[in-house]
Design a protein that fits this description.
The protein is an alpha/beta fold. The protein is built from 16 helices and 23 strands.
Length: 481
C-alpha cells in the first residue's frame, strides 16, 4: 500500500475534450475507493501502470487479458483472469477501462453496456486520473517513452518527486510506473487513435512528428492537425519542441502555438546540444541555454536520437528551474527503457531487443548498434507490424534495413488488423534486396529462431526489431547456453 503522502485528495469530477467536444469523465480515483474498476487488456503496456497506480492509491481493481501473467505478477492480491467472460464484471464493478485495441464484441464490454456502466478507453482513464494535478505530457511519433522516463529521472534528481507513467519497463523503477506526488504527473501521450487529445497538459513536449498510424489519420496533414490540437490544449505552460525534426518545424511554421522552447543541435534553438565525444558507451554533450554555456551531460545510451531525447529532458529541467547539477545527474543516471535498445546478451554474440516498428526507428536503432558495437557484424531481424504500415512503408523499411550487414525478415505481425491482399513480409525483404542488403525472408514464424542461429557467428550482433512477438525469440536466444 502506498504511503499516505502519495495519495490524492478527492476532488470534484472534471471535464476533458476529444476533438473539440466536451465529455464528463468519472472520477476514477474516488470511484475505485468503494467500487471495482475492471481493466480489459490489463497486461498492456499502457493499462498495467494505470491499474497499478489506482491500486497503490487504495483503489479496487481487477482485470483480464489474453495472457495476464504480467498483470498477476504486478498485482498478485487482485483478481486477474486469462481470457474473457462477462462474469469478470463483479457485482461491485463501477467502471470498465478498455484498451484501444479491444474489439467491440468482447463479453465484458457487452456486459458493461448492458449494465450501463461507464466504459472508458485507456486514454480517457489516464486523463480521469492525472488531470487532478499538474500534468507534463510527452508526445511524438518516435522517442516518447524514452523521453518521458528521462524527464522523470531529471525531475526526480531535482527533488520534484513526480509520478510517472510510461509505455515500457524502466529498470530503475522496476516497471512502467514511478510512484511520487499525487499532484504532479509526467505521462506519455500517445497519438494513436488521437488518444492524446484527452489530455490538457500544463507543459507539453513533442519529440518528433512523422507519418504513422494512417489507419487512424489517413494522411499527413491530419497527423499535424492532431499534434497542433494537442499543443493548443496546454494550460498555460510552454511547448517544448524537438527542433531538429522536420515535422515539428513544419508544424510551427504556419501556426501560432503559444510560447515554445526549442531543443536540439540546430544553432538557433534555446537549448542547444553539441556532441563533444561519442564512444561505445554513449556521448558527452555540451549544453547551451539561450546562448550561455551551462555545462555538460553524459548520455549513456547510443545513437544521436538518444542525444536528442536527453536534450528534451535537459530542456524540461531548465525551464522548470532545476539546478544544473541535478539535471546532469538525472541525465547520466538514466539507463534506458526495456525493449528500447535493450542488450540481453553480450558474448559470444550480442542480442539486442528493440521496439522499432517504423522506418525512422529502424534506421536509428541500427545506427545506434554501429556506435555501441563498432566493427562488429550487425544481423537485423525484422518483424513487420500491421498490414497497413507494411504496405505504406515497405520501400522505406528496405532502405533502413540495408544499413545492417545481414537482414532476416519475418512475416507480418497483424495485431489489430485483418490481412490485406498481396501484403506480406516479402514486400519488405524485396525492398531491402533492391536497397543492396543481403536478405533472407523467413515466412514460417516458427522457423525464425533457427534461421537466426544459422546466421550468427561469434562477435556478431543480432538486433531484433519488432513491436510484435519477436521479442520472445530475442529472449530465448539470449538465454541459450
Amino acid at each position: 500500500m502506498a504511503d499516505s503522502r502519495h495519495r490524492p485528495e478527492i476532488t470534484a469530477p472534471f471535464q476533458a475534450t476529444d476533438g473539440g467536444s466536451i465529455f464528463p469523465l468519472p472520477d476514477l480515483v474516488a470511484l475505485a475507493r468503494h467500487r471495482t474498476v475492471h481493466f480489459l487488456g490489463i497486461a498492456g503496456s499502457g493499462m498495467l501502470p494505470l491499474a497499478t497506480l489506482l491500486d497503490l492509491w487504495g483503489g479496487r481493481v481487477s482485470g483480464c487479458d489474453r495472457s495476464a501473467d504480467a498483470a498477476r505478477a504486478a498485482l498478485p492480491h487482485r483478481p486477474i483472469w486469462d481470457g474473457h467472460d462477462p462474469a469478470h464484471l463483479t457485482d461491485d464493478c463501477g467502471a470498465l477501462v478498455v484498451t484501444s485495441a479491444a474489439p467491440p464484441d468482447l463479453p465484458e464490454l457487452l456486459e458493461a453496456r448492458r449494465r450501463r456502466l461507464p466504459v472508458l478507453k485507456r486514454a480517457q482513464a489516464l486523463a480521469a486520473v492525472v488531470q487532478r494535478g499538474e500534468v507534463m505530457a510527452v508526445a511524438g511519433t518516435h522517442g516518447k517513452t524514452t523521453t518521458t522516463a528521462w524527464i522523470a529521472h531529471v525531475l526526480e534528481a531535482a527533488g520534484e518527486d513526480p509520478t510517472a507513467l510510461v509505455g515500457g519497463h524502466v529498470p530503475t523503477w522496476g516497471g512502467p510506473l514511478r510512484l511520487g506526488r499525487a499532484d504532479r504527473f509526467i505521462v506519455e501521450a500517445d497519438e494513436f487513435d488521437r488518444s492524446f487529445l484527452w489530455l490538457w497538459p500544463d507543459l507539453a513536449v513533442v519529440t518528433t512528428i512523422d507519418v504513422d498510424h494512417l489507419d487512424t489519420y489517413g494522411h499527413a496533414e491530419a497527423i499535424a492537425e492532431a499534434f497542433a490540437a494537442f499543443l493548443l490544449q496546454r494550460r498555460g505552460g510552454p511547448a517544448v519542441l524537438g527542433w531538429d525534426d522536420e515535422g515539428v518545424r513544419r508544424l510551427v511554421a504556419d501556426r501560432d502555438l503559444g510560447p515554445t522552447l526549442r531543443y536540439g543541435m540546430s544553432p538557433e534553438v534555446e537549448v542547444h546540444g553539441d556532441v563533444e565525444q561519442t564512444d561505445a558507451e554513449g556521448s558527452r554533450v555540451r549544453v547551451r541555454w539561450r546562448g550561455r554555456r551551462v555545462g555538460e551531460v553524459r548520455v549513456r545510451l547510443p545513437g544521436m536520437h538518444n542525444v536528442r531525447n536527453a536534450l528534451a529532458a535537459v530542456a524540461v529541467g531548465l525551464v522548470r528551474g532545476a539546478p544544473w547539477s541535478a539535471i546532469a545527474e538525472g541525465v547520466a543516471a538514466f539507463r534506458g527503457v526495456g525493449r528500447r535498445f535493450e542488450i540481453l546478451r553480450r558474448t559470444p554474440w550480442a542480442v539486442v531487443d528493440d521496439y522499432a516498428h517504423h522506418p525512422t526507428e529502424v534506421a536509428a536503432t541500427l545506427e545506434a548498434a554501429r556506435q555501441r558495437f563498432p566493427g562488429r557484424r550487425i544481423v537485423a531481424v525484422f518483424q513487420p507490424h500491421l498490414y497497413s504500415r507494411t504496405a505504406h512503408f515497405a520501400d522505406a523499411f528496405g532502405r533502413a534495413l540495408a544499413a545492417a550487414d545481414r537482414v532476416l525478415v519475418t512475416d507480418i505481425y497483424p495485431a489489430r488488423e485483418a490481412p490485406l491482399p498481396g501484403v506480406t513480409g516479402a514486400l519488405v525483404a524485396e525492398a531491402a534486396t533492391r536497397a543492396g542488403a543481403a536478405v533472407r525472408y523467413v515466412a514460417d514464424r516458427a522457423a525464425v529462431l533457427d534461421a537466426v542461429r544459422e546466421e550468427l557467428h561469434p562477435g556478431d550482433v543480432a538486433v531484433f526489431l519488432a513491436a510484435g512477438d519477436l521479442t520472445r525469440d530475442a529472449h530465448r536466444l539470449a538465454e541459450e547456453g
